Amino acid sequence: MDFELKTLNRALVCTEKADALIVLVPEGFAGGGDALSALAALAIKSGDLELKPGKLLSAYRTPGIAAARVVLVGAGDASEKNIRTAVHAATGVLKSGNAQRALVCLNLLPALMPGSVRAAVMACAEATYAYTTTKSKPAAVKLQQAVVVVDGLVEVQSGFDKAIALAKGMDLAKEWANRPANHATPTLLADAAKELGKLRRIKTEVLGPKEIEKLGMGAFLSVAQGSAEPLRFIVLRYEGAARGEAPVVLIGKGITFDTGGISIKPAADMDEMKFDMCGAASVLGVFRALAELQPVINVVGLIPACENMPGDRAVKPGDVVTSLSGQTIEILNTDAEGRLVLCDALTYAASFKPRAVVDIATLTGACVVALGGVRSGLFSSNEALAESLARAGESSQDLCWRMPLDDDYAEGLKTNFADVANVAGRAGGAVTAAKFLQRFAADFAWAHLDIAGTAWKSGQAKGATGRPVPLLLDFLLAQVNAAPDEKASVKSKAAKTRAAVAKTRA
Ligand code: BES
Ligand code: MN
Ligand code: ZN
Questions:
Q1: 266 or 496: whose pLDDT is higher?
Q2: Would you say the CB of residue 423 lies under 6 angstroms from ligand 1?
């Protein structure tokens, strides 16, 4: 999808040639002298256009309007959420027709903000996205160009630029997440990361099995050992700030297929475990967006990528492995593999002396039970970091919800045979997984996003959502603008956590 931002007043919108004109009409719309406003006002008055978000009324060859098709759509109170709903519905209608170039007119909305434009662009991108890579005759989406029309450019240009970057990032994340596992192996994921390394200010480094063994990532290795596909450990760097600026580290779970291993999963819906690298895909998507926006910040992306397979070389329940941190782990369930690849990446992250570390993972079915597909699970013992992430979720309409991390949740991870077990009981599964990770994140400000419920949709609409790229991007961009003392507060809290953890260990 190609996007453009254009300034036109209402009269000029009527004369602008296009295949379609989508007009968002807010509650309380008062009308006006131009053909467009008159049409909207008449439709409301006659009771044929409801203004609830997403309610549609289509017209063809309307007198006084140059665009062939006109789609009037209710926009409710014109909140970002309602703009998204409205544009999504209207664009959906045009998908089946012959329109190639559509105007998305926001001129009738009151108090346009950068976020309004972003919401419109995101909805357009979302509604017209189509996965094609492994189809021999992909159904072509005709609609190819969307021109977002506003009254005044200056105020909303920043929102537009951000939206374009975000759309590119989300498209990349969806592409890799949607690919089946035989078209998205650890090696292919690493190749995608290398492609990103060609973009401005991005560097990519890829480690293979030998290097990972030498480093001592025994937990990561134990997951990968059952598969014929070699593991990859991907290190991405976006260098937008001075060398000495501490980076934010993003860690994405990159299990390119999760069979469960020896603790094998049931057959039903197992295909969806190709999505078990959505955390990794979101990291790739964020870097794509960073390349576009070039913000003044340093970001590191770490992706431990491998398959989780059963087999004669696979790790067995009861096996004890030594993680990069030195902590030994008893693998009681080989299906709790995400935490095993993440724990070594967390230890590795410390070497960057990070300002903050955020891991993103399709980690637990329990999180799907707890929060469904609406909000991602947010875990952090660092108040400032948790708040920043929650705020970014709100501002980007990519919501998350804070979950607890009381130490009592870690009781079930105790074992007689290693420092820690990789599973506790069934109860509170999303939290016990986070408690496991927390043991490896004592040396920095850390947060964990469990995206098991939000990263993809099942059923008819099966496919990746591109989440939480919007949340992560807003979080990073807010870090750029954060006052120095706000950054420092994250740091000092990290120091406090460190001290507290040292105390509990002693
Ligand atoms: N990738 C899964 C989590 C998952 C399951 C995400 C279903 C979305 C839908 C993860 O590796 C896993 O298998 N977790 C286990 C953990 C359990 C063995 C403690 C789970 O959630 O069942
Ligand atoms: Mn698993
Ligand atoms: Zn998994």
A1: 266
A2: yes
Q: Are 174 and 131 in contact (CB under 8 A)?
A: yes
Domain of residue 261, residue span: 166-505
Q: Are residues 497 and 454 in the same domain?
A: yes
In short, whether 262's Cβ falls inside 6 Å of ligand 1 is no
* Cα–Cα distance for residue pair 315/308, rounded to 1 Å: 10
CATH of the domain at 453: 3.40.630.10
Please tell me the distance between residue 264's alpha carbon and the centre of ligand 1 in angstroms.
Answer: 11
Q: Length of the chain in residues, anyone?
A: 506
Angle at 405 between CA 451 and CA 217, to 5 degrees: 65
The dihedrals phi and psi of 93, each to the nearest 5 degrees, come to -60, -40
Mean pLDDT of 91-107: 94
How many angstroms does the Cα of residue 253 sit away from the middle of ligand 3?
8
Q: What percent of the chain has pLDDT over 70?
A: 95
Residues 387, 391, 393, 399, Cα dihedral to 10°: 80
Q: Quick one: 97 and 223 in the same domain? A: no
Active-site residue set:
265, 339
Instruction: Please list, in sequence order, all residues whose beta carbon lies within 8 angstroms of the beta carbon of residue 215, skipping any fewer than 6 positions away.
Output: 207, 324, 348
Residue-wise pLDDT for 447-504, tens only, equals 999 999 999 999 999 999 999 999 999 999 999 977 565 564 555 555 554 445 444 4
